[in-house]
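Thread: Modeling a multi-component assembly for a lab meeting

Hi all, long-time lurker, first post. My supervisor asked me to bring a structural picture of a complex we are working on to next week's group meeting, and I have zero experience with this. I have the sequence lines for every component (810 residues in total). Could someone generate the structure of the whole assembly? Inputs are pasted exactly as I received them:
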Amino acid sequence: MINKDKWIKTLPTATFNTDQKIDQLDHDRWESTLIKKNSFSSVKKYSLLTLTFIFGLLVVSVVKNQTRILEKEIESLNASLKSIEFNLAQSILDNEVITSPENISKLAEEYLNTDLRSYKKSQIKSLNNAQEENFISSKSKKKTAKNNEKKLSQEVKLRVSKKIENKKKEIKKLQELYNDPKSIPDEVKGKIAKKIKEKKFELKSLYESPKEVFTFERFGKWSIIQVAKLLIGMPVIPGR
Amino acid sequence: MKKKSFHFEDYTESKINEKNSSNNFIEISSSRVIFLSTIFLFLLFVCSIKVIYLSLSPKKEFNIKSSKVEFVKNRRDIVDRNGSVVATNVNLYDVGIRPQLLGDQEKKQLLIKLALLIPDLNLIKIKKKLKKNEFFWLGKRLTPQEKDEIWLIGNKSFEFQSKPSRIYPQSYLFSHILGQTDDTNNGISGIEKFLNTNLINKNKIETPINLTLDSNLQHLIRDELVKAQEDFYNIGSAAVLMNVKNGEILSLISLPDYDLNKRVSIQSEKYINKITLGVYELGSVFKTFTIAAALENELINPNTIFKNLEKTLNCGDYTISEHDKLPQNLSAEQILVRSSNIGAVRIAQKLGVEKYRSFLNSLDLLDTINFDLLEVGTPLNFNWGKCKLATTSYGHGITTTPLQIAKAYATLVNGGYEVTPTILANKLKNPKKRERVISKKTSNAINIMLRKVVSLNEGTANFANIEGYEVAGKTGTAVKYNSKNKLNTFVSIFPSSNPQYLLLVMLDEPKPAPNYVYKFPSSLKFPNGYNYKGENRNTSGWNTVVVAGKIIEKIGPILATKNLQASTNF
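Re: Modeling a multi-component assembly
Sure thing. I ran the full set together rather than chain by chain. Output:
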């Protein structure tokens, strides 16, 4: 039989006198000896990687989108280029047909004066020195006459242009007066008022006693003027 | 997990356990995250592969299609020496009808509409085709305008097919040179066939092929030939203008011609290219070769007198005679100027068969010539003998193409150097070293003699003596085999003091022109038994020479050869 005590006694006896604090397990002390599993950091890594990847994908899609827009533009430009090229080819073709010698000769026949007379050398008069001088002097005379005509016409042009300028200035002044009646001088205003009064009076008298207005003298004058107008060719009754 | 002991509470132990359990929890959750993220990553990977695939895939898969029908150039343009387009591509349309889609009433309506739109349409044919209820082509090679007009009828049975087609802006002008293409855009004749592989070369599709021909000259010459038909009632004519120094052809006309844009099958022989393909007996133009051969072999000189020339010579069944009354004694020069047949025979007899044959061979007159077209004629073979020598000396019993005659004359007058006729400008860029065929002395002598043919009163080509152009040349009148009709030729060279250009004019079966009013040159003392009007002669001198003179007068200003000698001395 095994003597339990005998064996138990051989075991090292626990010193219960020691401080209880020491006997208590310092879990921190023990825990720190455990191998720490860095599970959190691995998640972080993966999530970072994923984020980067997603970001990359987003960037790719943005770039892709941009390239698609660019490609669209390129495509539309290519299409317009092709149409321009096509139009150019058509225009060149049109030009070739229009300027073909056959077409030109047809047009020349239609529009140019082809009834030209050919002269042989023998038919052309050769000039001696005196004749040549005469020919040259007549040429120079013609030139001077032409120059004079040119000068005259230039003078006329100048006069006409001056007149036009003056008229323009007058029209401008009248326009200004019309736009701003206050600026019209009092004298002019008085004259106009007088004229208006006179006309009003005439109209009144015409309305009240028309017989007095149509005197024999006036009728005579009026009839002479109308006959004269008829002879000149002016309309007798204006507006008809 | 947090089971409390009912008898004992080991705080620390439980804490450790708690910690361990939380570790386990993290471990489990992290493995889940890893698992999920792996799936997520896998999906992302798949997506990214797709994105990369789309990025790298060709445009067609996702790009918007352009609404316009693309114009694809599938043949190179052909331009003349001035850069004028003579052959190019455009999009043309074939219009078909699918009668299956139409009811009887609709078919009738369609017929009425078509009849109104296209008055020349063969309605009976169309009606039959509509009845058959099978697809048929209403028209091919329609222009966009024509297509639009048909499209505006608004019938559902129409089918339009766009395809790039060849178009020739000058229509008639280059018909014998350019040739045509078939429906599949392959060349079937002319340059289109000869240079087919070159024309469809996609690497050079934007570069045109340059010809040496000139549209303006081509038009002027054609115009004169057309007028000649009204004056001399000839059934056809041809002309070639060549630079005698390098062989470049500036104009090549053969009448009758045809509009290249109208696709009609031409079977008639009269439409052949008379310059390159036509093989003819060209008559007295050969006398120049006979005399040149004798000069080259130093058997004669221009002043060698041939005495007692017979009026007729019998050779087998043939009787050789003169075309006019000629003196009995003639110098070699006079034989050429007056175009004496008997004189030419006497010179050929002096030469002998071998020397004469080898001389003609050296001028490339007996074999097929190398040219830039497939339509090239081959001279007929014959056996040489005494009689053959006699007839060939004045151009009978020997056939050749007008192009070969032009080439041989160019060699004779340009100082004796061989020339290769060409219509391709590229060939002239790298000229080969010129080979001498005859001596300069012979060439000069021939030039002088040819000038006298035109300038002297007794010459046969006085009507071509155009002031300022120093025209030289030789006439040729031949009677067609088994026919009374004639083939009149005139080979002219100008200016003779420094030959630049050669113009060969040929009239096929000209008739006497009693209504034609001849303008005699002021330098000549005509008419001496000749009439201004009512002339019934039908030799080259009375028609071909006249036409050639008119042509030279017209094209001279463009070639700038008038008074060339005087201007160079000045």
